[in-house]
Amino acid sequence: MAHIIKLNVGGSLFQTSKSTLTKFDGFFKTMLETEIPVAKDESGAIFIDRDPKHFRVILNFMRGGHVDLQKYSEDVTEIQKEAKYYLLGGLVELCKLKPEAQKMPYFAETFEDMARTVASSTKKVIFENFLLFKIFLIQVVCTVFFGTAFRCVYRKCFIKAVMLYGDKVDFCFREQAVESTRIIIHKKMTNRVFDENPGFVFDFDIIKKRIPDIDNY
User: Fold this and answer.
1) Which single residue of 2, 7, 142, 162 could bond 14 by disulfide (Cβ 3.0 to 4.6 Å)?
2) What is the pTM of this model?
3) Pfam families given for it (predicted)?
4) Given 70, 95, 120, which residue is the final one in a domain?
5) How many CA atoms lie within 13 A of 151 on its CB side?
């Protein structure tokens, strides 16, 4: 059974597991794994003298290692301050992302932007398999590296791909010096990666080839 921890953050009560609070190096890991004194309220909950407004974001980051900051675009600066207090370097860095780097489809300027954009993908599609009487949660990211010579042709293909699959797949594009195209499809829910090199043409049918049931999502 998980070790349940109760937290009183500025008067608001939260409940989580010790494994969540110690998943990352920082404030809570130090608190729970060292001998430093811990303040508690009258109910025995650990007391933290901070504004609780953004603590749910802090807690969700510790649970999954990522949060969708688009929902909190007006509060990112405050969230970053809280992340610094709790010594969560990963969340501090996430708060530094350009807003554009968290939107899809996205044309990345650097490999770092592309990596951060892929990591921030949150689009999920419900797929119902009536034969198995099951509902699956699908998350797919498609990154495309394309050459500069046929930029206009490529972009027309990209528009078509987004029109066909943009409600089901997060796309991220990056221009490169070489003329060949490289397409990497990541089916995140099953952690499967497909690396395709279709030559000089962006073949959006590759998406359907690698995810044959995509039209049923």
Assistant:
1) 7
2) 0.47
3) BTB_2
4) 95
5) 7
Domain hosting residue 189, numbered range: 100-216
- How far apart are the two ends of the chain, measured CA to CA in Å? 36
**Count of structural domains within the chain:** 2
Query: Which of 13-17, 80-84, 183-187 is the least confident region?
Result: 183-187
Residues 6+ apart with CB under 8 A from 205: none
Q: Is the dihedral of CA 17, 22, 24, 28 positive or negative?
A: positive
Domain containing 207 — which CATH number?
3.40.30.10
Place of tokens 């997060």: 170
Q: Which of 72, 95, 118 is the last residue of a domain?
A: 95
Per-residue confidence (pLDDT) for residue 42, from 0 to 100: 93
The whole-angstrom separation of Cα 11 and Cα 15 is: 13
Question: Does residue 64 sit in the same domain as residue 128?
Answer: no
